[in-house]
Design brief:
Radius of gyration: 15 Å
Number of strands: 7
Shape: globular
Helix content: 25-40%
Strand order of the largest sheet: 3-1-4-6-5
Largest sheet: 5 strands, mixed
Oligomer: single chain
C-alpha cells in the first residue's frame, strides 16, 4: 500500500498556500506509517508525476476557487469529481495538476483512490502569510485529512502522545 498526501499551493499568494500549510501541519504534528508520504508539492506540475504514479490513495490539499462558495469553506471531492473540477479554473497552478492527472490516466498509473481536500481562499493577493480567516481553517481541514486517512486504514499518532 502507498498513500501520498500532497499539499499544493503558492506560498507567495496569501491563501493559495493553504494546501501546503495543511500538509506541513500533518507532517509536523503526526507520526504516520512508512507507507504514507507527506509532500509539499508547491506549484509543481509534471515534476510530481513519479511521486503520484501508482498510489493506492492520493490525497491533495489545495485552495479551490468556486463561484458560489464562501471563503473558508472546505470541500471534499473524491475520485472522478477531482479531474472534473480541474476542468474549471479553480487554482492558479491547476494546469500542472490537471496535466499530471491526465498523464497518470494515460500511462495507467492513475491512483486507485483520489481525494481532494479543497479550501476556498479569502485572498489570492501577493503576500506571504494567509489571511486570519484561512489560518483558522487549517485545523478543521487537517482533521478532514486525518478522517480520510482513517477511511484508508491509517491511524496517525500525535507526536506528543508518542513521547508519553
Amino acid at each position: 500500500m502507498r498513500i501520498l498526501v500532497l499539499g499544493t499551493g503558492n506560498i507567495l499568494l496569501t491563501d493559495e498556500a493553504i494546501g501546503v500549510h495543511i500538509a506541513q501541519a500533518l507532517a509536523d504534528r503526526y507520526i504516520l506509517p512508512d507507507y504514507v508520504d507527506v509532500m509539499d508539492g508547491g506549484t509543481a506540475g509534471m515534476e510530481l508525476l513519479g511521486s503520484m504514479a501508482g498510489c493506492d490513495h492520493l490525497i491533495i490539499t489545495d485552495a479551490i476557487v468556486t463561484m458560489k462558495s464562501v471563503p473558508g469553506t472546505i470541500r471534499i471531492l473524491r475520485d472522478e469529481e477531482v479531474p472534473a473540477l480541474f476542468t474549471n479554473k479553480i487554482s492558479p497552478h491547476q494546469l500542472g495538476l490537471s496535466d499530471v492527472l491526465s498523464a497518470l490516466r494515460f500511462t495507467g498509473e492513475f491512483p486507485a483512490k483520489l481525494t481532494l481536500v479543497g479550501v476556498v481562499p479569502a485572498s489570492l493577493e501577493p503576500g506571504i502569510g494567509m489571511t486570519p480567516l484561512l489560518e483558522t481553517v487549517v485545523e478543521p481541514a487537517l482533521q478532514q485529512v486525518l478522517a480520510i486517512l482513517r477511511e484508508s486504514g491509517v491511524e496517525a499518532v500525535k507526536k506528543e502522545a508518542a513521547h508519553v
